[in-house]
UniProtKB/TrEMBL annotation:
Any one GO MF annotation of this record: methyltransferase activity
Record-linked Pfam families: Methyltransf_25 (PF13649)
Domain of life: Bacteria
SUPFAM superfamilies in alphabetical order: S-adenosyl-L-methionine-dependent methyltransferases
Protein's organism: Acanthopleuribacter pedis
Protein name (Swiss-Prot/TrEMBL): Methyltransferase domain-containing protein
Length: 249
């Protein structure tokens, strides 16, 4: 099995594949004024196994198109949506966010938690804007520096992993430049990283390593996740995900 398949296998059993939580998803939909705005056509881009899509389907009068590159994530999303009783409100679609097969101005809301980085924030928000109706809302979470200065080791790690990591003011300026009016911004609290993402992952490491008989590839993957987690525990005051809510103009 190659590195990528192992990475999928480590993350497939998780409730979510990146930092976030149902509380913060709800907070974002309230800030965007979506509570009484239905019925809405929503896209969840880079939906993973469906934490956000299922939360939104439970909260709002919506139909959600849940898009991801990976069919195994979408299969799990479909099972979880059935179990949650919201399968009728969610349609899954295997597609890449840089080649979405939608008509322009199709959606009222485009949501994307922890996934726009796959295209890069600037290119990603520009691309997604095309598929929003006029006045449509974009809700994206994106890794963000929380301070203007930061330790060198942290700076080097994250700028190598994701060169577009930046401060909230820089991200808001990108949104303005790309045809959005920012409506709200908040920082994902620590429980979104620890309780909802890293700690459940840590609990899977042992079984994962046993399953792959402590192969070098499996050990390297776990070591790299452990490095990311240790860095977060040490430097979590310097970065988080920012949640950006903006209206298309
Ligand atoms: N939104 C989910 C969540 O918060 O749990 C998943 C976030 S995970 C960090 C990023 C997701 O983006 C993964 O499910 C991955 O398969 C998906 N992805 C990666 N590249 C993509 C692409 N080019 N188009 C669509 N989805 C992509």
């Amino acid at each position: 099995m190659d590195d990528f398949q192992l990475l999928i296998d480590l993350h497939l059993p998780a409730k979510r594949q990146g930092p976030g939580s149902p509380t913060e998803t709800k907070r974002a939909l309230e800030l965007a004024g979506l509570r009484d705005a239905g019925p809405l056509k929503v896209a969840d881009i880079g939906c993973g196994t469906g934490a956000t899509s299922i939360a939104l389907a439970n909260e709002l009068d919506v139909h959600i198109t849940a898009v991801d590159l990976l069919p195994t994530f979408l299969e799990t999303l479909n099972q979880r949506a059935e179990e949650a009783g919201v399968a009728g409100r969610i349609t899954t679609l295997e597609a890449s966010m840089d080649a979405l097969p939608f008509e322009e101005e199709h959606f009222d809301v485009i949501w994307s938690e922890g996934a726009v980085y796959n295209m890069g924030f600037s290119a990603g928000v520009s691309e997604l804007r095309r598929f929003l109706k006029p006045d449509g809302m974009l809700l994206v979470s994106e890794i963000t520096w929380l301070t203007d200065v930061r330790p060198q080791a942290l700076y080097e790690y994250w700028t190598q992993a994701y060169p577009e990591i930046d401060t909230a003011s820089a991200k808001l300026a990108v949104l303005e430049d790309r045809g959005f009016s920012p409506v709200a911004y908040f920082v994902l609290p620590k429980h979104c990283w620890l309780e909802h993402y890293y700690e459940p992952m840590e609990q899977r490491f042992e079984t994962f390593l046993e399953k792959y008989e402590n192969s070098d590839v499996a050990k390297a993957l776990v070591a790299s996740e452990k490095q990311e987690i240790a860095l977060y525990r040490k430097y979590c005051d310097y970065y988080s995900y920012g949640f950006y809510i903006a209206r298309k103009i």
